[in-house]
Specification:
Blueprint: H1 2-14, E1 20-22, H2 31-44, E2 52-54, H3 70-78, H4 82-97, H5 104-124, H6 129-133, H7 148-166, H8 168-182, H9 190-197, H10 201-212, H11 216-234, H12 239-245, H13 251-262, H14 266-272
Parallel strand pairs: 1-2
Helix pairs in contact: 3-5, 4-7, 5-7, 7-8
Length: 273
């Protein structure tokens, strides 16, 4: 009761959330071990605060109730059912959030089971986890998660990466082309595009070349020059302003790129038009 009153007063007068952890009666030789158990108990408490916890009530957590459904998720991944597996993940994370005694060890168990599925799928399809995930700053699959949001974000991003690898033709390339179309007036780098679709930059370049028939750099150039050509032929906007519209503040460079695509300078093209 005293601890409960203390917790309530701390919230009322100081606006802080705390918990109290009470150990078992120990002799002098057992105090250090009891202290370590209480620290571990506090470390593993992810969901609740403003409560009193007793070491005597600490039970063994069952990880089997919350691990991913490996066989089901594997089949969904291999058949390209991205939205369905995303719903599965959201549902399983929601189940975890309702557990009254959720621990770090349970999150780690979830992560390990999920990683077994990831490595199985990638190995089966001749893909490397290191190559896929080394440039993905938001994926923390190889670190112990400290909260559910971090775990969910990493798992969902990894699923997106693997899906794009296994089923690339329609999803990845179309998304890249749409991104380019929407950002022609801004600088676009290969790293931006690879981060957008969660792929390794080198792999994205090879995939784009194979599917589209030209490099990402050439595709961006041709798309920009096509829009520049339309402005030059259908408006009276000064050519120097047209160049700036597409990020070319060096007019000679813009002229060189335009000539590369259309074999004439922008001025010559306007005169011909």
């Amino acid at each position: 009761m005293r601890c409960e009153k203390y917790i309530q007063d701390c919230y009322t007068y100081f606006g802080c959330n705390i918990s109290c952890y009470i150990g078992n009666r120990s002799n002098m030789y057992e105090i250090a071990d009891t202290y370590r158990q209480l620290l571990e108990m506090e470390y593993n408490n992810l969901n609740k605060s403003n409560q009193v916890y007793r070491l005597a009530s600490l039970g063994n957590y069952s990880i089997k109730t919350m691990i991913p459904r490996i066989s089901t998720w594997t089949l969904l991944m291999e058949h390209g059912q991205l939205e369905e597996i995303q719903r599965e993940i959201h549902g399983r994370i929601e189940e975890l959030s309702r557990k009254p005694e959720l621990s770090v060890s349970e999150l780690e168990g979830f992560r390990q089971e999920f990683m077994q599925m990831v490595h199985y799928i990638l190995h089966k399809n001749g893909l490397s986890a290191f190559e896929l995930f080394q440039d993905q700053a938001g994926i923390h699959l190889y670190a112990q998660p400290r909260n559910l949001e971090q775990l969910k974000a990493s798992v969902l991003q990894a699923v997106q990466v693997i899906h794009d690898q296994l089923h690339p033709n329609c999803s990845v390339i179309q998304r890249v082309q749409s991104y380019i179309k929407e950002h022609l007036h801004e600088p676009i780098t290969r790293e931006q595009l690879s981060s957008y679709v969660h792929l390794n930059p080198a792999y994205l370049s090879r995939l784009f070349k194979r599917e589209v028939g030209e490099s990402i750099t050439d595709y961006i150039l041709f798309a920009r020059m096509a829009q520049a050509k339309d402005l030059i032929s259908n408006s009276t906007i000064p050519i120097s302003e047209v160049a700036k519209t597409f990020g070319y503040h060096n007019f000679s460079h813009f002229s060189k790129m335009f000539r590369k695509v259309y074999r004439v300078s922008p001025q010559e093209f306007r005169q011909q038009s």
